Amino acid sequence: MNILGFPRIGEKRELKKALESFWAKKSSEEELLVVAKKMRTLHWEYQKNLLFVTVNDFSLYDNMLDLSYMLGAIPQRFQNLKGLDLYFAMARGNGESVACEMTKWFNTNYHFVVPELSKDLHYKVNAEKIIQEYNEAKALGYIPKISLIGLFTYFELAKIHDNSSKEEAFSQLKKAYLELVKSLTTLDEEIIIEFHEPIFVKGQNPLFSEIKDVYDTIVDFGIKAIVSTYFEASNEATKILVGTKIDGLGLDFIYGENNLTSLKLIADAGKKLYAGVIDGRNIWVANLDSKLQLLDRISIIVPKDLIHISTSCSLLHVPFSKDSEVKMDSEILSWLSFAREKITELELLESLFRNGITESNRKAYEQNQAVNATRKSSNKIHDVKVQHRVSNLKINVRSDTFKERIKIQREKLAYPNLATTTIGSFPQTPELRILRQKYKKGEINTNEYESGIKDYIKECIAFQEQIGLDVLVHGEPERNDMVEYFGEQMKGFVFSQNGWVQSYGSRCVKPPIIYGDTSRPSPMTVRWSSFAQSLSKKIVKGMLTGPVTILNWSFVRDDLPRHEVCKQLALCIADEISDLQDAGIRIIQVDEAAFKEGYPLRQENIKEYENWALECFKISSSVAKSSTQIHTHMCYSEFNDIIKTIEAMDADVISIETARSGNELLKIFKQVGYSNEVGPGVYDIHSPRIPSVDEIYKQIKLLLEVLPQEQLWINPDCGLKTRKWEEVKPSLKNMIEAVKKVRAEIDK
Ligand code: GLN
Ligand code: ZN
């Protein structure tokens, strides 16, 4: 039995607290390290019945960053720093130098620190972190397995920051990486390393020609190597890996069913198989009967004694344990399995797989069957009305073409060219957070809460009118989070109290859990939007989160295909759009911030995702009348691969992130002849800096080189909730000034 890693943020987010206190200089480095060591000790204790305990899965910030640090891949601007100062400066920046970039780890919500490669890196390896953790585990009497990000994955996720060729950069890095691995051989007689190579699931890559050499070299150092891939199947790499000297392969059979086609190769090569059959990314109790069937299928081909039952990936992506969920409906809670419970499942599955049903496992096995049976038939999950609606869905396109709609909208909504707006949220002030918390805890009553929210909305509207924005928003003060806010008001969702999952560094998210058929019993946003609209003659945009984003940022039930769950969500949002327009809201924005995140890792699966994700967006938006303008917003800037899908979404207006990429990205919109309206963000909201009128003016002029003024909207990059009013006010004023200047020139 094996896991690929354990959550490191801690049962009660101890690491978060220790880190934040250290960063705030309220505690010392020693104190931080004591907490970290205590956590590792505890986490290994839970793993004591496994084949080994995993070391180096722990991190004070991120494993990719750990590896950069251990390789000495330190960008020039941090050269004068050392130790934790250096480590955290790379992660978070310091007064002088900006942090390294962060981006999402494959298709998860975990962010890693992107390595910066260049010729002037002076690689200097230092395995101290691994050595220390290894010795700690050893001293406690465990057999340690080192978890290490593989060379290929590290390299492909890195960015080359100078004109080095890929080959040069790779060969330099390879030298350092091998040196690091070699330096570990002195630790023990036999060193076991599990190399994480999820990049292999993306399929053929020119660097595959290096796989054999790299892993044979590593084994020749005297290391017992396991190479693990996850999140999809990795058959191309498996073909090569079976021909190397490695000891075993780890494959994901949950998200990479196609790995089953590689079993014969593995058996023929006599390699060990770490079979990822317990879902490392989702939170449902395993159905042990179906797991046993899967293992039977595998063991027809691979001899039983070469199979080690594993999680599909690191447990980093699920919460710590269900122990502290005291408020959740007990039936629903019985269907869940977090990291600690998953280890127990591994143990039970192992015993059933090796010994069949015995005196000692019978009770737990029967309990597992019972839980799965109740989950299947529970009336909490099944809502016939919802199922009926989904199966009777009619075609979902808006009644008019964009050309026809935009004519009606332009007439009715009468906004100018280069219309100005924002993405929805205004600053979430400490007062606002306190107000919501007090209401949640029952410390203030509904009246007090609502009048607080209304005051905020009034201020937002007054400010927007005063500076002269064309299309206003209510500011989203009632929302803690753009998914949670909707999930809390829909049936079929449940929220944990302590189900935290690390997002980056000390930041955690608590994803909503979709356990059953979803529906929307009553309007979710209408009262706030209507209130805001009642305050102004100008148009106030309604604000919704789209179905695909709600899906991609939740733990989703596994007893229904994702596209079916998404269709149900799409109907909830459609209902909300319908109510908003009936209430007189004329523009409605459906945010799809996480649309792109859901893209499958393998090319051949992309079409299918695009088809249903697109369909779901359209199920929601097609209830809009021709005169109701539908906006959507996406917070990223790379559209090249998905522009056709964006076009097919057929939103009347899309706002996107561009401020950091100039008008480069817009060119793709022009190239494909995109004809709907576009709002490319004209300034970056991710920084506290206030953009000058001139700067925004220039940015608008650049945009106008690519698209005509009739097609353009002017707005910031993203929502303003993370900013302060002192930043937002002057920034938006400058944006308006810049637009005025451009309009004046055009009118001349
Ligand atoms: N309407 C949301 C906001 O302004 C959009 C957030 C997002 O795209 N992440 O906050
Ligand atoms: Zn955004």
TrEMBL record:
What is an annotated GO biological process for this record, any one? methionine biosynthetic process
Catalysed reaction(s)? Answer: 5-methyltetrahydropteroyltri-L-glutamate + L-homocysteine = tetrahydropteroyltri-L-glutamate + L-methionine
Q: Which GO terms describe its molecular function?
A: 5-methyltetrahydropteroyltriglutamate-homocysteine S-methyltransferase activity; zinc ion binding
Q: Which residues form the Cobalamin-independent methionine synthase MetE N-terminal domain?
A: 2-299
Residues holding L-homocysteine: I423, G424, S425, E476, D591
PANTHER family found in the cross-reference section: 5-METHYLTETRAHYDROPTEROYLTRIGLUTAMATE--HOMOCYSTEINE METHYLTRANSFERASE
**Binding-site residues for Zn(2+) 1, renumbered to this chain:** H633, C635, E657, C718
Catalytic site residues?
H686 (proton donor)
Q: Which residues form the Cobalamin-independent methionine synthase MetE C-terminal/archaeal domain?
A: 418-740
Q: In which pathway does it act?
A: Amino-acid biosynthesis; L-methionine biosynthesis via de novo pathway; L-methionine from L-homocysteine (MetE route): step 1/1
Query: What family is reported?
Result: Belongs to the vitamin-B12 independent methionine synthase family.
The record lists 5-methyltetrahydropteroyltri-L-glutamate as bound by: R13, E14, L15, K16, K104, N109, R507, C508, W553, E597
What name does UniProt use for this protein? 5-methyltetrahydropteroyltriglutamate--homocysteine methyltransferase
- Residues at which Zn(2+) binds: H633, C635, E657, C718
Tell me the cofactors it needs: Zn(2+)
